[in-house]
Amino acid sequence: TVYSITETAMLNGLKPYNYLTYVMEQMKDLSPFPEKEAMLELLPWSNSLPADCRSKLKK
Length: 59
Fold this sequence. Notes:
The protein is mostly helical. The protein has 3 helices and no strands.
């Protein structure tokens, strides 16, 4: 599962470590059953991810 998330992050032009760190930090503040919109913002293709998660190179 972690490998799949890492590869998906890389395919979406993200730095895997920064992305996973960001997602884990955000998820600890969510409720046990978060709203769909809150989860959509954490997906690797979301435009709302911070710049430090993004790589300069996109595959």
